[in-house]
Structure formats: structure tokens, C-alpha cells
Amino acid sequence: MREDPSRKQGLQVTRRGVLKGAAAVAGAGAVGVGLDWAIEQHVLRNLNDFQRYIYNRKKRMQINNLASLSVGKREALIDAEVASVGNFLRSTEGKRILESGTTEEIWKMLIMMPPLIREHIRGTKYDIATGEWPSVRLSRSLVGASQTHKLGDRFPMQSYGNGFYTGRGTLTTNWHVLGGLVGNLRSRNRFNQLSDTHGLDIVHVEFPENHIEAHGPQKILSYMGRDEDVHGTLITVAGIDPDSTAGKDGTKLYPSLAVRMTPRLVDFFAPTRIGSARNEMIRAELGNSFMFILPPGENESRDDMSMPIHGMSGSPVISAGTVAGILQAGMNGRTVNKQLGLEINIGFFHGPDAIKKAKDIGLTYKASEWR
Length: 371
Hints:
Layout: H1 15-26, H2 37-45, H3 49-60, H4 71-90, H5 92-100, H6 103-111, H7 118-121, E1 136-141, E2 146-149, E3 157-167, E4 170-173, H8 175-178, H9 185-198, E5 203-206, H10 209-215, H11 227-230, E6 234-240, E7 251-257, E8 259-260, H12 263-269, H13 277-287, E9 289-294, E10 316-319, E11 322-332, E12 345-350, H14 352-360, E13 364-366
Helix pairs in contact: 4-5
């Protein structure tokens, strides 16, 4: 589940391909049922809560046409969709499916999640302006030193991930991003043990004063309240990852709805494999995470090596201007259950509770050598 932050050059995924994928995913939700009012009411009376939710979802939005609407109309449609889906996720039937639903019910819930992409939120309150960009890149340079790179820095990098500032001298990222940049073997072993034991792919970095004076945080973010405030809300993952699916400035935004992982969802995405330490680690991290739908193509390899999402690890998850989490992994839905044909990409992030816990248990690295 942990993503290697290294960048490998492969076949590119075009933005046009991503948009076509979005339209394909949304197609099922854009078709009107063609029933007159009387027949429709009869049908609805014979559906349970989940069936009614799916039925209404198919009628409600032609989401693949969102990008062609005005900013105001797009924002209103997104707000209405977020409220509808969020209410269902928090309803009795939604909770039942998340906690004990059948494989088919979970599959249906996933494919009916709104497949939002960056073009849908452009110019709305969910967009993030370049001047307010919340993340920086962390890298090991060609000369081997750990470095922090703001937006627009084109310095040659062998590998990189993202991070974000939560204080003047404190930056938060994934441990799997920072781990390769930590030269001290004893420190690496201690952080590996803490991360694996608690199922947290998070580390807080405290910078020396000379680094703070030279580079200073681009933007300091505050935490959202608790995990329960994030579940069922719209989030945007904001990272710097200049590849073929990024904007011209090298940034990416993943808008989606956050769904708190449950033991049943962990079993759905990562069934237990007896004797597999990696499987145990993956399940522990997923149990401390949220899931969301990625834009089409972001977690699909075109050369069996590179995926567009690689490099986004450690990006902040933003909700209403505050940190709702930190991106830690992605998954291609087709690998979950080949019989179901889950043609979507899925991301996972640790929420605010996990970020705070990481600091409480000692996942704080004091960086003495950092440019």
C-alpha cells in the first residue's frame, strides 16, 4: 500500500483521457429512467433505503457536464450532491453498509460516489489559488541532500513526495516519504517500528533555525477538529506533482467525498492474508484512514511502473481551508475484486485524529541536516 515516492518515466496519461474516463464513470448516473410520475412513485414505494438512494442518484446529476456550467451553478450542484451523499453515509442504512454491507452493496455505494475532477471545482469555493498553495515538495537531490521545494522550483530531483507546514518550523509528511531521506539507521529503525506498530504513515519534521530563516513556510495550516467532522464531507487533496495530469504550474487537486474506513471496508479493500507482515501493515494503516474516489487514471500504471499519483504522497487534504488529513496511499479498483469490475481509482488518507496521534506517540523527526 505504501507508495514509493520515486519518479519513473513512462507512458503519459493525458488530461483528455482523464476527462473521458470521468464521463464513462459518470455515465450510469446521467441517464433518466423515463418513467412517468405515477409509475415512478409506485417503484419508489417498493424500494428500500439503499435502492432508493441509488435510484435517485442516477436521476439527480449529469455530473460529466459540470465543467460546462457557470461557477455558481457548478457550486450549487456540488453542494447539493455532497449534502445528499453525506446524509446517506450518515444514515442508518449508510452506516449498515459501511459496517456490515455485502460486497455487492459496497461496490454499488462506491460506483455511485460523485466522480469529481479539478475542472468541476475550478473557480468555486473548493478551488485553491496558486498564491495560496498549501504544499511543498520534499526531495533527495542529485547530490544526496534532503531539500524542501516550493511551487515553481524546478530543481533536479531523484525522488520526491509532498508535505505541509503546521507551524513556523514544523512540517508534516508521510513516513514513507521522509524515511528515504533520513540517513541515521537508528532513527529509521525507531520510526519504522513506531509507524508499523500504530498503523500511521505520518511524521512531523522539526527544522533547524537556519532552514526556517532561509526557506520559511509558504503557508501554515491549522487542523480540522476531529475525524467525525470529516466523514461525508467534500475534501480536496492539494499537491505538487508535475506530470502529464497536472496543471501548467505542476499542481494537482483531487476533489472528492471522504468516507471513514470501517473494519468491513478494510476487509473489502485488503482481505487478511495469514502470515503476511505487509498485509498486516496495510490493514493497520487503512484502519486509521479515510477513503475517497480519485480522478480516473491517477492510480493506473501505463508501463507497470509509474502512476500519476506517485509523488502526491504526503499532500494535505483540505476542507474549508483547514487540514482534514494527509494523503498516504492509492489503489486501482480493478485489483480489489476482478469479478465485480470496480473501474475506479481509490485514495486513502489519515485524518486529523491520526495526525495528532502521530505527534503524541513520538513520530517527530528533528532535522539537523536539511537545505
